[in-house]
Structure formats: C-alpha cells, structure tokens
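Holo prediction. Input below; ligand is flavin-adenine dinucleotide.
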Amino acid sequence: MPHFDLCVIGSGSGNSLIDERFADLSVALVDDGVPFGGTCLNKGCIPTKMFVYPADLLRTPGEAARVNVSMDAPSVDFAGVRDRVFGRIDPIAEGGERWRASASNLTLYRQTARFVAPKTLQIGDETITADRFVIAAGSRAVRPDIEGLDAVADRVHTSDTIMRLDALPTSLAIIGGGFIAAEFAHVFSAYGVHVTVIHRGQRMLAREDAEIARRYTRAAASYVDLRLNTRVTRADAAADGVRLSLDGPDGPSEVTAELVLIATGRHPNGDRLGVQAAGIELDADGYVVVDAQQRTTAEGVWALGDVCSHGQLKHVANHEARIVQHNLLHPDAPRSNDDRPVPHAVFTHPQIASVGLTEDAARAAGLDVAVAVQEFGSVAYGWATADDTSCCKLVADRATGRLVGAHLIGMQASLLIQPLIQAMTLGTDVVTMARGQYWIHPALTEVVENALLALNLTEESA
Ligand SMILES: Cc1cc2nc3c(=O)[nH]c(=O)nc-3n(C[C@H](O)[C@H](O)[C@H](O)COP(=O)(O)OP(=O)(O)OC[C@H]3O[C@@H](n4cnc5c(N)ncnc54)[C@H](O)[C@@H]3O)c2cc1C
Ligand SMILES: NC(=O)c1ccc[n+]([C@@H]2O[C@H](COP(=O)([O-])OP(=O)(O)OC[C@H]3O[C@@H](n4cnc5c(N)ncnc54)[C@H](O)[C@@H]3O)[C@@H](O)[C@H]2O)c1
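Structure of the complex:
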C-alpha cells in the first residue's frame, strides 16, 4: 500500500499550498475534477467574471441614454466570448496538471477518493495512507427535488456547464435567488436571452442587508421576468424546451424555456469523501468541523475552503490555505485564523458589495447602532452618471465609534467597499476614517465619505 508524507485532496486552493518547501516530502495530490485546478479557475469566479464584463458593456447604451448619449444597439458574439474565456483558462488547467504530474516527489491521482479508515484513502482500486492529510474538496451544486427534472436533464444546467454552451438559447429559466442566479441573470439577459428567474423567497439575495436586497430585486425585475414567492412543482419536456409548472402568489402557472439553470446552492463535499470513516466530524450543514488552526477533529488532518467554510468564497479559501500551509511547515509555531470580517461582492447589475453585519443582524445582536444610507446620486460623480438607484449603507456601533457593517449597491461597489473593509479590519474609527484623510474630489468615493459623515454616533438610543 503506497504511503505518503502528505496527501492533499482537491486541486483548487489545496493545490496552491504545495510549493517548493514541500520538495523533500512525498506528496499525493488527489482530484477527480475535469478540468484540473478546481472551481474558481474552471467553473467559478474567473470564467463568470469574464462573462460578466461583456454583459456590463452590453448595458452601456442604457446608462448612456440617461446622460444624453446615444449608442447603436450592441450585440454579443457568444461563441467568441466563450472561446476567449476558455481559450485562456483551459491551457492554464492543462499546464497545471502536466506540471504536477511531472513532479518527482508528487503522485497525482485523478479519481474519486473516499476515506475507509483513519488516514487511509481509497482511490479507485488503490488504497493509500499518509502521515498528514489536507482536505480541500470544495462543494458541489445542489439539484432540488423537482418531479420530472431528470427526464429533461439534457436541457438542465448548473454553473458547471452553462458557460460552455454551443450557442445562446433564446430563453433561460433560472431557479434560485442567490449569487449564482443574480450573476447569470445579468449575463444572459444582457446577452439578449429572455430570462425568467423563479425564486421561492420574496426578495432576491435575501442574505444581503434588506435595503440592498430590496433595491436589487427592483433593479433585477426591470431586466428579467422575476417570479417571487414561487416554487417549481414539476418539469416536462416541451417542443421548444422545458415547461416548468409553478406555484406562486397567484396560484399555479407555467413557464417554458429552452434551457434551465439550477442555482439553488452548493453542498460541501465532506460526505462525498466519507470523512466520518476517518474520525472527521461534519457539522449539521455538512461542513467539515475545523478549529482556528484549520485542524479537523482527526489528528494530522486539516481542512480548508468550501468543504469547511460556510461563506464559500475564494478569498477565504486562499487565506485558509495560507494558514494550513504555514501549520504544515511550522508545526511548533502554528498560526490561527482570526475573526476579521469577511467581505463579498456579487457581480450582477448593479454590482453589490458587503462586509460585516446587516442592520437587522446588528440590532438583533443588541448593538446601539447608527445607520446612514447615502445615495450615489447625492455626490457630484453620481450627478455625472445620473444615478438614481444606488446607495452606500453603513452600520456603526455607537459604543465603539466603529463600523460593524458596510453595504453597497451600484457602479464599482466591489472597489468602493475596500477602504471600509480596511477600516473594519484594522480598527479605524468612523471619525478618523472620515476626517483623517483626503477624499479625492469629485470621485465616486465621496459617497463613502458622506455616508461616514452622516452617521450620528452620539444620539442616545431610544
Ligand atoms: C459560478 C461560481 C462563481 C463564483 N464566483 C466567485 C467569486 O466571484 N468570488 C468568490 O470569492 N468566490 C466565488 N465562487 C466560489 C469559489 O469558486 C469557491 O469558494 C472556491 O473555488 C472554493 O475553492 P476550494 O479549493 O475550497 O474548492 P474547489 O476549487 O472546488 O476544489 C475542490 C476539488 O476537489 C475535488 N474533489 C471533491 N471531492 C472529491 C473526491 N471525493 N475525490 C477526489 N476529488 C474530489 C473537486 O473535483 C474539485 O476539483 C464562485 C463559485 C461558483 C460556482
Ligand atoms: N461573487 C461571488 O462571490 C460568488 C458568485 C457565485 C457563487 N458564489 C458562491 O457560490 C455559492 C453558491 O451560490 P448559489 O447562488 O448557488 O447559492 P446561494 O446560497 O447564494 O443561493 C441559493 C438560492 O437557492 C434558493 N434555493 C435553495 N434551495 C432551493 C430549492 N429547493 N428550490 C428553490 N430554490 C432554492 C435559496 O433560496 C437561494 O436563493 C454561494 O454561497 C457563494 O458563496 C460566490
């Protein structure tokens, strides 16, 4: 039975921790995914954003019309976009796999693995053991239990497959109301596809601050057919695609679309790995349980990324990979994850970015909060763009004078939020941040400056 010093399961963030400092160790790297290199590179962050940017450009004429500029109706060469995206990405995945396969100290396994005992992994017909394991097995798209869906499987996609279509469909039904639904609703509708979004909740992006979710839901309804408070009860083949039976606020209805995109969440892959056989605990939601050093409940086994992190974000997986890497290399001086606030952005239209507590969560936590909502349209650059939908919402704790949450919807939200993330992470108080530095005039960052100044930090709580 082959024995290794280290076994890493997952070629996404797990792959990135194996550098030249592990050259003296025998390493097994296990991944059954095609292409090699994990979700972010092949099926997640990177390709989606390469599809989002053309969609942003396609919406430019609509924005331009508000400021007295007319542009001809733009169009997209979908095959050209797709081939540019994967023409860039696929060679990276292939090169990464070739490089790993050629390393003298590393054995690459390209099959599905499953723990059969502590520190013992079955990979196809082979069983291996290792002194130390890193579980970086990610998550997978969940398919809701909808009657008839399997019978129309050839027309049903997840984010894993939708970006590699041969051609654009004329219509697309998206089931779900989270990040993936929001990003693909923007992309495909901007590309000219008739998009219907079917969401069981009353607001899209329901985990965002209520102000942001409300504004986004209104915006999305202006460019997709949005069915809220609606469930899909069954799917049937139709001459021109799939007919979905719906149950919504006005009773039963139907929608027919050429293709369906399932965007109903992702489940961590600990179960797929049979981790319990190795003494590795899962929490109630199926995530591998880890401590601050990213150690699992089994000795000598660490975990990182989507398999253990509820947020399912790449910057979190990368940070955890750096901690695991350090702790493997320096077992006598281990590092711990801290409680820095975790930001995210949703690259939809308009863009959304958020960090920390929503107003509702801050109040539920018993904080005496000051809240400010600053419209983009209230600052000079917002006048320039004739913006009437976007805002920066800040939530501060009066007891400390510091921000506990920041939420933006609008142009470049993912960039505008970074100084707010920095202030929250490094502990800069609101007054120092607002008045302890210059804010470039008349940049859009003035919306952040004015939101900070609008926070009433002294008012007594009611
Ligand atoms: C469409 C989409 C868009 C996204 N956009 C963003 C974004 O803009 N920003 C952001 O921060 N995050 C984004 N994410 C999330 C981000 O992609 C993930 O958080 C990140 O890639 C997780 O990395 P990981 O290393 O944990 O897992 P992965 O990169 O998924 O790697 C896990 C690997 O393990 C393999 N594996 C699993 N089980 C087994 C097994 N039993 N045997 C062998 N191999 C196995 C899998 O095949 C896979 O290759 C997006 C995700 C999706 C799906
Ligand atoms: N920009 C980014 O950072 C980015 C982009 C895409 C994906 N991601 C990551 O990928 C993860 C998965 O994205 P997602 O959009 O699939 O998940 P999500 O958790 O954001 O949204 C899932 C949606 O599906 C709905 N849903 C769940 N079960 C359902 C069912 N049975 N029937 C109907 N609707 C159902 C939920 O109400 C929710 O609206 C996210 O958690 C996110 O971390 C990140």
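The chain has 14 helices and 22 strands. That is the main takeaway for now.
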